[in-house]
Amino acid sequence: MVFPIGTPGVPWGAAEREAWLTSRVVQRSFSDEVLSKLEPLRGRFVVQQYGALSHDPKRYPLYAVLPERWCPEKPSVLITGGVHGYETSGVQGALLFLHTKAQAYSDRFNLVVVPCVSPWGYETIQRWNAQAVDPNRSFNPDGEVVPGRSFNPEPATEESRFLIQMLRYLNVNQWTCHIDLHETTDTDATEFRPAKAARDGVQYTAGEIPDGFYLVSDETNPQSEWHAHIIDAVRKVTHIAPADEDGRIINERVVQEGVIAIPSPKSIGLCAGVTNAIYATTTEVYPNSIQTDDDQCNAAQVAAIEAALSYIVKHESKLE
């Protein structure tokens, strides 16, 4: 376990954040594992830089993959991965989709894919960004700080701000779909949740890590049929996380098999709430299961995207 820096019971200040940052080490290459996989996509898609992280702009450019030709009459779809950089299949699943399946959907949708929202986090295998902030609580399109939010006092991060700026530039009136690709890992319990408690100066309470794939839905916009279609498709690739004895996953109520419901993602600064998409969800894959390997996790992410889009194609008359 990597123990956090600071004094127990005292929230981190600037010195603790700086000490934490300098203790992080690069463990894999964003350039080799992500940027190099974007290059072969040129010619089929537009590979567009939309920003860069200020502490090392050359090392950490931010890229989106866009249609060669944007058609306003098509439904628009956003796929994001690597909001938490350490969640590998979110990044690699998005890249695998781009290389194997995306072109098949290009005639039906304006596909916008952002494979790695948090490249520093990817290299350091870290949930937070370099400022010890969780990017997935900072997607506030108006830059506001939401009262009562426990995760971050900051209104935005560079990771979220650049993505929001790009989406504004695209000027999509109504998004049809947004799928945000994530993982739930054993290190959530052994490192990141304890570190968050130490950062915020609060007592850490241990929780269970679910074994399997599940989805996070918006309780204000359930889309239960759509979620069931995704779960049925992913089941062919990997197992679905069961509810615990209290009918919960990660302490959130299970509303249907493999699906939990939370308050509106927009209201708590989640990436899944950054658009007004009619269909929006967060995937969660468990890479540490004895039943699952990395390839299955990546394939599960692709299966989820494909199922989500195929459902919309079949039911697109509802969007008119």
TrEMBL record:
* PROSITE patterns per the UniProt record, alphabetical: PEPTIDASE_M14 (PS52035)
Boundaries of every Peptidase M14 domain copy: 26-308
Q: Which InterPro entries does the record match to this protein?
A: AstE_AspA_cat, Peptidase_M14
- Cofactor(s) required for function per UniProt: Zn(2+)
- SUPFAM superfamilies reported in the protein's UniProt record: Zn-dependent exopeptidases (SSF53187)
Q: Which UniProt keywords apply?
A: Hydrolase, Metal-binding, Zinc
Q: Which GO terms describe its molecular function?
A: hydrolase activity, acting on ester bonds; metallocarboxypeptidase activity; zinc ion binding
A single GO BP annotation from the record?
A: proteolysis
Active site, UniProt feature: 284
Q: Which family does it belong to?
A: Belongs to the peptidase M14 family.
Protein's recorded name: Peptidase M14 domain-containing protein
Question: Which species?
Answer: Prymnesium parvum
